[in-house]
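Before relying on records like the one below, remember that each one covers exactly one chain. Contacts with other chains, cofactors or solvent are not represented anywhere in the record.
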Amino acid sequence: MSDYARGAALAADLVNSAPEVRRISGEVLVDPAALGRFLAERGLDHEPVAEDLVQVLELRRELRAVLEARDEDGVAEAAGELVRRASAGPVLGRDADGRWQWQVETAPRASLADELAVLAGLGLLGALRALGHERFRPCASPVCDGVFVDTSKAGRRRYCTPGLCGNRINVANHRARRRERG
């Protein structure tokens, strides 16, 4: 996975955890424990408290605005603001495989939401630079308000959650074809 894909995916996943996106299942981040599971599923180790949840839910609203920005300059400005919230500047360090990578340190007392803002902001800036604004998309499902950044090689992704939204559309199309035939 590229340096920016993880942060861009985190941004989209966080936005898509909202009840207005998950209309059937509702709010994903119902309490600090749910936020902890959400983070763990993305390889982030943290035990959130109630205040973390409140701040992350606010960050989620900010991220939605970035992902829905109509122009590249709007994305760059808003994502840059997210990075500046807790960033102590970039450093060059080795990753787990010993390769040199840019790393952004966060301020020592940065909140969970600010650390997530830095990660998501960097991911969104990287995706904007490498892939362009046209990869920031709404879900193609007519019954979903999700958003995503298409970091796939081909750039043809259409759904925020292909296994959920894409599958629903495929099942609906299949059922419609069966009704037409018989």
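The helical segments are 3-15, 32-41, 50-67, 72-84, 112-131, 162-181.
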